[in-house]
Design a protein that fits this description.
This protein has 104 residues and is mainly α. It has one domain. Helix 1 packs antiparallel against helix 2, helix 1 crosses helix 3 and helix 3 packs antiparallel against helix 4. 20% of the residues are buried.
């Protein structure tokens, strides 16, 4: 159950970050409010997941997978530039998350 909470926490964090982009620096009310609510919900789910998952593992997965998903959304939907060094760095994040999970 904790892993499911962590998964949904990651999804909400990514949605919150996407709303941050749409908020246009807090100049648009609906995306700004949605961002705050999504981040609060995300942190709440992360906190609940920490009942069963060690902090170092949960946070590494939460931040690493969130970063990965945000990069993918940025490239696919916002047409942000990518490069070989950026892709290599993302691969290192993925390998780091896998390493943390397998070692614990």
């Amino acid at each position: 159950m904790s892993w499911l909470l962590l998964f949904f926490g990651i999804v909400l964090e990514v949605c919150g970050t996407t709303c941050m982009k749409f908020s246009n620096g807090f100049t648009r009310v609906v995306p700004s409010v949605a961002m705050i609510l999504l981040y609060m919900s995300s942190l709440g789910l992360l906190t609940l997941a920490l009942k069963q998952i060690p902090l170092n593992v949960a946070y590494a997965i939460w931040s690493g997978m969130g970063t990965l998903l945000v990069v993918i959304l940025g490239v696919v939907f916002f047409h942000e530039a990518t490069s070989i060094p950026k892709l290599a760095s993302i691969l290192l994040i993925i390998l780091g998350v896998i390493g943390v999970r397998l070692s614990g």
